[in-house]
Amino acid sequence: MAGGEGLAGLLRAGNAGSNTAKDHVTVLDMALAQVPEHARPRPGDPDSPRVLARSDSAGATHLFAAACRKRGVEFSFGFPIDERVQAIVDLIPPECWHPALEDGDELRDGAGVAEATGMIDLGSWPDGSRLILRKERPHPGAQLTFTDVAGHRITAFLTDTRPGVIPGQVAGLELRHRQHARVEDRIREGKQAGLRNFPCRRRRAQQRPSRLCRLRSATQSRPQTVISTRPTP
To answer: How many angstroms separate the Cα of 71 from the Cα of each of 11, 49, 171, 232?
Structure first.
């Protein structure tokens, strides 16, 4: 996403897996090709523009992370809550949990953020990868799940952004990752624009309708971005 609109899209077979890293790399390359040359990342250049790839846990694959690193793109991937993560939540001292943030630097009620990089082996991930956890009291009436720990909803993400780059430290990183949820709005708009029902049966014939749907979705998201970023008189 750039300014809210989709940069690229890839039609896949209906039985394609959600964590097919090869497809993620393909879409990443397509998206970077849409970015103006002066704004593309330049691996190894300290003055390179900073570009971030965000994804839910389906994108948390070693191949995709390595592809991001090779292209000079930082990553922020959702990390699965497995037994390793569940086991370390209670081992983190209370003073290491920091209040989570909302937009506008307001505190998120009942939510805390902590870094757990040294508590889990991340040796198979690119150097500098960091694991950030968030625990939060579920909303009243919410059903607990098997990944909850001591009555708290646990989420995690993996990022290679260096310490001190994002204001707010780990809370700022968590807020940045959580803002990825806007992609769900783009998906909903894309379905409303026609991605839900294509007129053709063959995948090759769907390319043009797919591009038209993405264009329509982009025209819907761009005015929202312009309005939300216009300075107040």
So the answer is: 23, 12, 26, 37
